[in-house]
Design goal:
Helices cover about 30% and strands about 15% of the residues. The strands form 2 sheets. The protein has a 3-stranded mixed sheet with strand order 1-5-4, with no helix packed on it. A two-stranded antiparallel ribbon has the order 2-3.
Length: about 120
Amino acid sequence: MSMSTSLFLRLVAKSRPGLASSPSIFQRAMATQSKSEAALAYDDKSLNRLERTESIYKLGKHRSNALELVNQVPPIEVEGDVAVCDGGGGALGHPLEYIKVGGRGGKPVQCIYCALKFVQKAH
């Protein structure tokens, strides 16, 4: 609930005293606001879940260094103008992607699924 809604509820409570005595509207709305504000404190994934102390995992427990590992793989040289990537094939692969590598001036182009880089072989 935003601050403007909270302010609106307070103004309504002042203008209609009978409405403010009813816990069904005003108090439930204020309790909902405090719950949502408390939920925002748990958005920081770099803190431990229960103690809310600094975690050893800076990006969260289930993040990986996959991009660092993929960046260590040199670009795959392709003879034609188009590279075909299937992510390694089989059940662990991804849908075929046709990647245009010609006319890029020797700059590598990444697969959108697995981030492998392809470059056109120099003639």
